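Supplementary Methods S3. Input chains for the assembly prediction are listed below.
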Amino acid sequence: MYATLYAKEKLYGLDKRMVTLTIDGKFVRTESRTSLLEAARTLGIAIPTLCYHEALKPYGACRLCVVEIEKHGRSKLVTSCNYPAEDGLVVFTSNERVMRTRRMLMELLLARCPDVPTIRRLAETMGVRASRFGHQAKERCILCGLCVRVCEEIVGVSAIGFADRGTSRQVSTPLGLASDVCIGCGSCTYICPTGCIEMVGKPGPPGSREMIMADLALKPCPADYHCETCPIDQGFLDEIRTAIRGFREALGKCSDARLPSLYKPQAQILRNEAYFSVRRNDEE
Amino acid sequence: MKRIESPSDLQALREGILFKRDPDQKVVRVCCTTACRAGGALHVVEALRKGLGDRGLSDKIQIKKTGCRGFCENGPVVAVEPEQLFYNKVKPRDVPDIIDKTLVGGDPVERLLYADPDTKEKIAKEHDIPFFGKQARHVFAKTGRIDPTQIDDYIAEGGYTALCTALTTMAPGQIIRAVEVSGLRGRGGGGFPTGKKWRTCRQAPGMVKYVIANGDEGDPGAFMDRSLMEGDPHSILEGMIIGAYAIGAHEGFIYVRDEYPIAVEHLTIAIDQAAAYGLLGFNILGSGFDLTIRINRGGGAFVCGESTALMNSLEGKVGEPRAKYVHTVESGLWNRPSALNNVETWANIPLIINRGAERYAQIGTAGSKGTKIFSLVGKVRNTGLVEVPMGISLREIVYDIGGGIRKGKRLKAVQTGGPSGGCIPSGKIDMPVDYDSLKALGAIMGSGGMIVMDENTCMVDVAKYFIGFLMYESCGKCVPCREGLKQMHHILSGICEGHGKAEDIELLTRLSVTMSDASLCALGGTAPNPVLSTIRYFRDEYEAHIFDRRCRAGVCRNLFEYYIDETLCNGCTVCSMKCPEGAISGEKKQPHTIDVGRCIRCGVCYTLCKREAVRVR
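Predicted structure tokens for the full assembly:
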């Protein structure tokens, strides 16, 4: 997978030793610096995640994938999505300390987004039905950053990013104005685990979007523009291609006529839940 | 400026500077760093210049704008040498007296001398003042003496000798060994052994490596890094050049927060002057070693003091931490091995090389060597910067150096380590101050903030303040820190407003464990410390807030009321006249009463009453 390639070569250097570690009492042999999450998944051990996606660099924001590791006789909690496999590591993916931490994190998320089905469902699988915390918000966004990262790493335009910090952090376009680099591909909508980004057609000229699309879309291409060999899931690429093709075709028409077709492709890729890693964990 | 090509050139330059100086010349040193400037130090300098010019003494008496002496409480401070007189709270109008009496007449100006607060006895010399007596100023030895904008001053005081020794007589491995033997630990907060960090960085694969100085000091009430950068920038540069040579780095960065304009200015001047002398740039001192150092100004985010967030910020990205499972000494700035140290750590390096590691290690305790600069603030008489040997007791810092608690109140707690630190109760103030003892007490050394609190401090309110600060300064990337701090602040606010619930303490403790276990970076990981340490030592206060709805310190407005002790009140009517709500009534020379219903608990009567008849219940 792309993330495996990235994690090993870009993030951690070209260290390709094989290492043996223990996850929940089972031995696993894997390339060094594979993430613990991937190593656990090869063993069929499910670890819940919210901000992780195979196509993107690990981010470590939701902290739900915490596992306990033992090294040199000392134990600590680490996030499995970005902790590299090491020789002799002993990993516990669901002991009491880990589960206690995950339940507390779910309570925190539930207090933030009490009405989001994804969060409710995930919390219930861990036995959390209500949050003890008093500060209850009605947010839908959990700030996992998937949309921001897909826009930067896959689409390559960084039309959206994080604005503000701390408790007022939010996903936004620069200065909250309509983005002039967005290609309208819909990837953000597609990848959002809580469904809080929606595509709505707006009247008015798409403005400078036109020039950006042709050159800069998919710029940091992991497969050097050979889509056949691309490590990213082909279905996802198809969706982006559809969106971009629709956008290109629409450019030939006048502004009034192209609007409906401009937003049509994106309507089809709303919330493709195959990419929704939480759902996958539930099924496993 | 002539380029210095070799150690002998530097020696010749130093001798030349000293030869030109007249040892008997009178020097007036005026502290011109942030605190004293705020008190009008620049006007004092201007008045001195004008006064000396008018009297035709400009050539005979030298005025030096120096760095911080640490006695910021009494600024602006002026020192006259060679008489070694030390004047406090000098205003421009005092300047004629200083010139006529001291500089011309040779007598001290009595009213400007430091007066002992108890005996009122005047103390003329700096080292006789108790505030300075117990300090061990090694890192701060030159600040307050040299003009930080003159490299010649630094060289005249023996500056850059450590660099000569390191570059010409020591191999990189020997330098690292020396730093390891010295036992120096990071002064920025973590306390990681510096030598070990450097060794790992040297051994990390990669041709390009970086040295970085962290000057993004952001703790409330801490300003030692600022004073060091303002007062002695060359010591930081010298340490960085030695470190870069030891590690094998040819590029360095100093990350300073933009709120420190004088620090930025002085560092910029220092870098330019060092480069002009050839102490930075290509072939330093003829050794063949190259290094460039650049300054990067931070945008004011507290979290950018965290190493990975700082590096992200240096790279031009948003200052957010990233996972440190692969350490920054192996993959830091632009994924290259990077040695990041606090500016105070860097300033310790020349000392280690000059004195020798073994001699350096003689100061301090088993696990913590050398001296540490603390910014002593809060309800203590002498606030300012103090440099003390590791292992000194808190009592000595608070009572001997700090002069005790203001207005004769009782000490309640000392908060160390900045917002992520902990509160040490008054019962533990005989504990030595070093990395390990503070950690055992539930506090941290941190970067060296030390806030002294008296009996009128509510510890729940203190915890709420620090959690509020961290909530505002959290980058918001990870869930436990962002959401955890928000909930923590909500719970603490509830307790302070009188809506505390029985299960709150338990929930706070559990949330704290999750936050310290699962947060992405040290900010979130240490954020629960103020809550945990106050619960540990002041649980009774939390319980009084929650169960009795009482704040005994008289801080949380919903949880106390003022009353007048009839046996103490003499009916002076000051309180009733000043009460903004007219809530106090009573006849002259008769005991007064407070109408609790109308009282808004502003505390005016409490502060004004000389007989302490206004009480809290």
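Chain B has a mean pLDDT of 92. The CA atoms of residues 17 and 156 of chain B lie 6 Å apart.
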